[in-house]
Specification:
The structure holds two protein chains of two kinds. Chain A is an alpha/beta fold. Chain A has 20 helices and twelve strands. Chain A folds into two domains: 2-144 and 324-391, Periplasmic binding protein-like II (D-Maltodextrin-Binding Protein, domain 2); 147-321 and 398-438, D-Maltodextrin-Binding Protein, domain 2. In chain A, the strands form three sheets. Chain A has a five-stranded mixed sheet with strand order 2-1-3-11-4, sandwiched between helices. Chain A has a five-stranded mixed sheet with strand order 6-7-8-5-9. A two-stranded parallel sheet of chain A has the order 10-12. In chain A, strand 1, helix 2 (38-54) and strand 2 form a beta-alpha-beta unit. Chain A is globular, with a radius of gyration of 25 Å. Chain B folds into two domains: 18-55, no CATH class; 75-314, MetI-like (MetI-like fold), CATH 1.10.3720.10. Chain B is mainly α. Chain B has helices spanning 2-12, 15-22, 26-55, 75-81, 84-116, 122-130, 137-147, 154-163, 179-204, 208-216, 221-249, 253-258, 270-279, 284-314. The chains are: A alpha/beta, B mainly alpha. Chain A binds chain B through residues 69-70, 73-74, 76-78, 95, 98-100, 207-209, 262-267, 281, 397-398, 400-401, 403-404, 408, 411-413, 415-418, and chain B through 62-66, 85, 148-151, 153, 168-169, 171, 173-174, 176, 256, 259-266, 268, 276, 279-283.
Chain lengths: 442, 315
C-alpha cells in the first residue's frame, strides 16, 4: 500500500510539474510598442482585461511622437526584438510589408473570422492594406484618427463678439462652412483682447523636424485640388502635385500662418497646439481627433466651452488628413501566438466598444455605426464626419524619402518665406520624381 | 612597500610563465601591452571606417534587406557634391562654425583676461561663468526655446526692455534673418567658458618675470599685451579653436532642440542633414559617402591646422 501511495504521490508530483510547465510555457510576456500619448494610457487600462483572460503579461514601450518614427523604424530595421506588437504609423505599412517586418495577417483573419468589411473602409485602406486597395492585410485597424478643428465655443457665443463679427462679415460667428470663412474667423480673433489677455486666431501645424507641417498643409492642399499623382497613371506627378490650384492652396496656408497664428508658432505640432489652446491663446486649433477627449475633460476649456468641426471644404474638394494606426505583429517576435491572440481579443466588438468608452477611437463599424455613437460624446459626430473625408500621405516603402522633401519645401515657403508656392511645389515634384526613379518606379 | 609586493608577485608567477616572460624582448612586451588597445581601435574605429567606405560605393539601404546590393561606383559622391541642398547645408555649417569660433575666442579670451586679474570673489565668478558648459546640450537647447519664446521668453523681454521693441514682434527661431544667430548665441553662451578656461591656463603659464622685464624696459601695457600676452597664449587659443571647431562641425543636439533645422532648411547643419539621410530616409550607401566626405573635410582641415599649431608652438 505504501508502495502504491509513493507511486501515486510521485505521479501526482510529475503531473503537477507538467501542469506548471505547460502554464508557464503558454503565459507569454508581450511587449506592445506605440507612441506616448493619451490613447496609449487608455490602451494600458484596456489591456488589463486581456491579461486577466489570457494569462499573458503585457508590457508597453511608448515613445514620444517626435521620436516615435526614428525609434521604431530603427527597431524594425535592425531586426530588434523589443516589440511583439507594434501600433505603427499608417505610412510605414508599405515598407514594413515589403521588407518582411510585419506578419501578413490574411490567413489569421480568415481562420478567426475577423473580417475587414467590419471596419471603416478608410481605416482598412489606410492602416492595414499593402499594396493599397488590394486584399493584403498587415495590420488590424486599431485607432481611427483624422485632423479636425477645435474651437472656443464660449468665445464664439459671446454676444458682443457675435455682433461685431456680423457687422464686419455679414454672417453669424459660428462653425466655418469653408476655408475662407475659417480664415475670416482666425483674422477676427487675431490680436483681440479677451478677458484681459491677447489671443490669436489659430494654432496650425508648422513643425519641421518630423512630419508636422506636412500633416497640416495637406488638409488645405487636398481641398484646393492637390493630388499625389495622376489617377490614371501612377507616379505621374507633374500637373497634379504642382497644379496651379495646389499652389493656391499652399499660398492659403501661408496666408493663414502669417495672419493668424500666435507669435513664435513656427515649429508647432500636436502638443504645442494643445498647449496653446488649453492656455487660452488661440480661438481655434488644428489637431488630430485623439486630443478631443482630453479637451472635453479639461477643467479650463472643456465641457461646453469647446466645440469641434471637421476640416472645412475648399474650392476644389472636401478632405482631411488621415491619422491613426493599425496594430501589427512584428515578424521577428518570439511570441507570435500570444501576439496574434492579442489581436484576436482586440478585434472583438465588446472590446472595441470598451476601447471607445475609455478614450480610444475604435475603427469597428458596429461601434461607430451604432445609433447611440454620434451622441455618446460631443465630438463623436465630428469624428464620423471627418473619417468620411480622409486622405493619406504616401505609404510607399520610400515614404520617409518622400516626407522629408515635403517638410523642407513647405516649411521653407510657409515659415521661412522663401520663394513662391509654385516654386515650392515644382521643387517637390523634382524631389519626388528623383525618389521614384531611385525606387525603380519611374 | 611596492618592492615587497613586486617580489611577492614574481614569486607567485608560475615558473613556466616566468621563464617565457623573461625571454621576451622589450618590443614584444610593448606589443603585449598595446595589443588589446590596438585590437579595440581596429574593431570599433578602423573596421567601421573601412566598412563605411565600402558601403559608400553601393546602393545599400539598411531597411531593405531583401534588395540586392549594387555597386554604383562614385555615383553617390557625384550626387552629393552636385546637390545644391547639401551645399546649402555646408553653408549653414560654415556660418555657424565661423561665428561661434569668432565670438567664443574673443569673449573667452576677454573673460580669461579679466579672471586672471586677482580680485575679490574671483573663484566664485569663475564657477558661475563655467556653469553653462556643465549642462547637457539637449537641456540647453530646450530651455533656450523658452527663453526665445516671443510672448513669455526672457530673451525677447530683455531685448524689448533695452530697445523699446515689442517682445512678441520678433521670433528668434522663426525669423529667417535671426534663426542662424539664435543658435550662434546659444552655443556661444554655452561654450565660451571652455575657451576661457583654456585661455586662463595659457595666461597663468606666462612667467611674471617676462612682464617685470618688459616693465623695466618701459613697455606700455598695450605693448606688453601684443608682444607678450597674445603670442604666448596663441598656442592655447589655437588649441581651443581646434577643439571647438571639431565639436561644432558635428553639432547636432543643440540645433535639433532649438530650430530642428528650420525655418525651412536655414539652420540644417550637415550633421542633421546626414542624420536625415541615414536614419530617416535610410539611404545607407548615400549617407556613407556623405559621412566620408565630411570625415575627409574635417580630417584634412584638422591636419593642416595641427601643422600650423606646431609651427606656432616651435616659435
Amino acid at each position: 500500500m505504501r508502495g502504491h501511495l509513493a507511486t501515486l504521490a510521485a505521479a501526482g508530483t510529475c503531473l503537477a510539474g507538467i501542469g506548471l510547465s505547460t502554464a508557464s510555457a503558454s503565459a507569454a510576456d508581450l511587449t506592445l510598442c506605440w507612441a506616448a500619448w493619451d490613447p496609449a494610457n487608455a490602451l494600458v487600462e484596456l489591456s488589463k482585461d486581456f491579461e486577466k483572460e489570457s494569462g499573458h503579461k503585457m508590457s508597453f514601450e511608448f515613445v514620444p511622437w517626435p521620436n516615435f518614427a526614428d525609434r521604431m523604424l530603427n527597431e524594425l530595421n535592425s531586426g530588434g526584438k523589443l516589440c511583439d506588437l507594434l501600433i505603427g504609423d499608417s505610412q510605414w505599412i508599405g515598407g514594413a510589408a515589403e521588407n518582411g517586418q510585419y506578419l501578413k495577417l490574411n490567413e489569421f483573419f480568415d481562420a478567426n473570422g475577423i473580417k475587414m468589411d467590419d471596419f471603416i473602409p478608410a481605416t482598412v485602406v489606410g492602416y492595414a492594406q499593402w499594396p493599397k486597395n488590394t486584399p493584403n492585410y498587415w495590420a488590424l485597424p486599431a485607432f481611427g484618427d483624422v485632423v479636425g478643428w477645435t474651437y472656443r465655443k464660449d468665445w464664439f457665443s459671446r454676444p458682443e463678439l457675435q455682433e461685431e463679427f456680423k457687422t464686419k462679415y455679414g454672417r453669424d460667428l459660428g462653425v466655418p462652412a469653408n476655408l475662407d470663412e475659417l480664415k475670416d474667423i482666425a483674422e477676427f480673433f487675431q490680436g483681440r483682447e479677451i478677458d484681459g489677455k491677447t489671443v490669436y486666431g489659430a494654432a496650425l501645424y508648422t513643425e519641421r523636424g518630423s512630419e508636422g507641417i506636412t500633416m497640416g498643409v495637406t488638409n488645405i492642399l487636398y481641398n484646393y485640388g492637390f493630388k499625389y499623382e495622376n489617377p490614371d497613371k501612377p507616379y505621374d506627378l507633374a500637373g497634379f502635385v504642382n497644379s496651379p490650384d495646389a499652389a493656391k492652396g499652399l499660398e492659403f496656408y501661408k496666408a493663414l500662418y502669417d495672419c493668424c497664428t500666435p507669435p513664435g508658432a513656427s515649429d508647432w505640432y500636436m502638443s504645442e497646439n494643445i498647449d496653446a489652446y488649453k492656455s487660452g491663446q488661440v480661438a481655434m486649433q488644428m489637431n488630430f481627433a485623439f486630443i478631443w477627449p482630453g479637451v472635453h475633460a479639461d477643467p479650463t476649456v472643456g465641457g461646453d466651452k469647446s466645440g469641434y468641426f471637421p476640416n472645412p471644404p475648399g474650392p476644389n474638394g472636401h478632405f482631411a488628413q488621415l491619422g491613426g494606426q493599425g496594430i501589427s505583429v512584428v515578424a521577428n517576435t518570439d511570441e507570435k501566438d500570444a501576439a496574434l491572440a492579442y489581436i484576436q481579443w482586440f478585434a472583438q466588438p465588446d472590446v472595441q466598444k470598451k476601447w471607445w468608452s475609455v478614450g480610444g477611437y475604435s475603427a469597428l463599424r458596429s461601434v461607430v455605426e451604432d445609433p447611440s455613437f454620434a451622441t455618446s460624446q460631443p465630438y463623436a459626430q465630428t469624428f464620423l464626419d471627418s473619417m468620411a473625408i480622409v486622405k493619406d500621405f504616401w505609404a510607399e516603402p520610400a515614404y520617409a524619402s518622400l516626407l522629408q522633401p515635403m517638410q523642407r519645401r513647405v516649411h521653407d515657403y510657409v515659415v521661412a518665406g522663401n520663394g513662391t508656392a509654385q516654386e515650392a511645389l515644382d521643387g517637390l515634384v523634382e524631389d519626388w520624381t528623383e525618389v521614384f526613379e531611385d525606387e525603380g518606379k519611374l | 612597500m611596492s618592492k615587497v609586493a613586486m617580489d611577492r608577485l614574481a614569486e607567485a608567477t608560475p615558473q613556466r610563465l616566468a621563464r617565457g616572460v623573461r625571454g621576451l624582448s622589450d618590443r614584444a612586451l610593448a606589443w603585449i601591452f598595446v595589443g588589446p588597445t590596438i585590437v579595440l581601435l581596429l574593431a570599433i574605429n578602423i573596421f567601421p571606417l573601412i566598412w563605411t567606405i565600402g558601403l559608400s560605393f553601393t546602393n545599400f539601404r539598411v531597411n531593405r534587406p531583401n534588395e540586392d546590393i549594387r555597386f554604383v561606383g562614385t555615383q553617390n559622391y557625384t550626387r552629393i557634391l552636385t546637390d545644391t541642398d547639401i551645399w546649402l547645408s555646408m553653408q549653414a555649417t560654415a556660418h555657424f562654425l565661423f561665428w561661434t569660433l569668432f565670438l567664443q575666442i574673443v569673449i573667452g579670451f576677454w573673460l580669461a583676461w579679466l579672471i586672471n586679474r586677482k580680485f575679490r570673489g574671483n573663484d566664485l565668478w569663475t564657477t558661475i561663468i563655467v556653469l553653462p558648459m556643465m549642462l547637457s546640450p539637449a537641456v540647453v537647447g530646450n530651455f533656450w526655446t523658452f527663453l526665445y519664446q516671443p510672448q513669455i521668453g526672457l530673451f525677447n523681454y530683455a531685448v524689448g526692455f533695452l530697445t523699446g521693441q515689442d517682445p512678441s514682434s520678433f521670433s528668434m527661431i522663426a525669423d529667417v534673418s535671426l534663426a542662424p544667430w539664435s543658435i550662434v548665441i546659444v552655443d556661444t553662451w554655452m561654450w565660451t567658458p571652455f575657451v576661457m578656461l583654456i585661455c586662463l591656463a595659457g595666461l597663468r603659464s606666462i612667467p611674471d618675470s617676462i612682464y617685470e622685464a618688459a616693465e623695466c624696459d618701459r613697455a606700455s601695457p598695450f605693448r606688453q599685451f601684443w608682444t607678450i600676452t597674445v603670442p604666448m597664449v596663441l598656442p592655447f587659443l589655437m588649441l581651443a579653436v581646434l577643439f571647438r571647431g571639431i565639436e561644432n562641425f558635428k553639432m547636432f543636439d543643440l540645433v535639433v532642440q532649438l530650430t530642428g533645422g528650420g525655418p525651412g532648411s536655414l539652420t540644417e547643419v550637415t550633421s542633421i542633414n546626414l542624420k536625415r539621410e541615414a536614419f530617416e530616409k535610410w539611404r545607407t550607401g548615400y549617407s556613407s559617402a556623405y559621412a566620408i566626405i565630411l570625415f575627409v573635410t574635417v580630417y584634412g582641415l584638422a591636419a593642416i591646422y595641427v601643422k600650423a599649431l606646431n609651427r606656432v608652438k616651435q616659435r
